[in-house]
């Protein structure tokens, strides 16, 4: 799509992951406020969230190796908590309760409101892509890890939904944030699991956001971001990006409530995913020989449907917020279009235009010829057409803007020195 769209996607994705750090830490703060029975939950959760951001900042500052060790610990705790929930849910499951919860409540929230709140919980499957520079074999590890993450998430979320629906009545599910503890075999493990899940997700965003910014800065698209291209240590750890991501997270903590932050995070991620899907579709449509997806089930129409689904979901959640997000994207695009210099890499636009020309010529050849379709095609011989602009202008007058002019220069000689252009 060109550096304009690429730069816009990079900025939006960096903001999405930076904002999500605060989102996950607020969740951690609210859980801890419930455990401690705090009187002022909002203030308590904000203070705890700020402390959590500061704590995770240390690991992100030290680098991916230290952060990965921390992730192993929290993943172990999360696995034990999920096991406790599934054991308790299976033992308490009741078909009668399931039947009562099968239909939606009359006084419930709109689907898209709940979707916006829930959506940030499923964005973690892309964190591995942000860490591609730290992987030994990214080409093999990323597809395998991404599909494994998606498959495991589907199993956990759908399984949890069915166990909830068959274990607790609707009024408890809708109004009690500790409902999961009532289902679990060992309730205190749920608190530990939620804490582990929020900290793990926040840590992943803390690692991903600075690396996106570092990659974007290295491309020299935004001159103001050039200082963030510098890394530290043998692993090129983007510490300056870590500081900026932490600053954004602290600023977002001022909102203080999950339900306020969640739609903002959802908009950022949806517009990023939509553009990434469209970029894949555009690349496939260009027919470039260099684009050869190795995924056997790849289809460009799936990419297009993904882009349209993201766009439609944005409008369904909040049309005003969706339009604002799109306006920000267009503003960044226009800024880059006016200020960005020549790209140091190829994009798909020329390939797309060449593919369209090829397809249109094939379509035209299949149509029956008719005198009304005739167009002048002029072969112009010149030793140096660039220096004889009047000749080119004269040819343009003859074909009237509806034909083709081909300038030819004959090179005299033999062997490799002989050629026609």
State the helical fraction.
55-70%
Shape: elongated
* CATH top level label of the largest domain: Mainly Alpha
Tally of distinct domains: 2
End-to-end C-alpha gap: 31 Å
Mean pLDDT, to the nearest integer, reads 78
| CATH-assigned homologous superfamily of the largest domain | Amino acid/polyamine transporter I
Please tell me how large the radius of gyration is.
Answer: 28 Å
Number of strands: 4
What is the name of the CATH topology of the largest domain? Amino acid/polyamine transporter I
Number of helices: 16
Taking the sheet with the most strands, its summary is: 2 strands, parallel
The spatial strand order of the largest sheet comes to 1-2
Level-2 CATH architecture of the largest domain: Up-down Bundle
Strand content: under 5%
Order of helices and strands: HHHHHHHHHHHHHHHEHEEE
Return residue spans where pLDDT drops below 50 for at least 5 consecutive residues.
none
Secondary-structure-based class equals mainly alpha
Features of this protein?
16 helices; Amino acid/polyamine transporter I; two-stranded antiparallel sheet; mainly alpha; 3% strand; 421 residues; elongated; single chain; two-stranded parallel sheet
Short account of what is shown:
With 421 residues, this protein is mainly alpha-helical. The chain has two domains: 3-260, Up-down Bundle (Amino acid/polyamine transporter I); 375-421. The chain contains 16 helices and four strands.
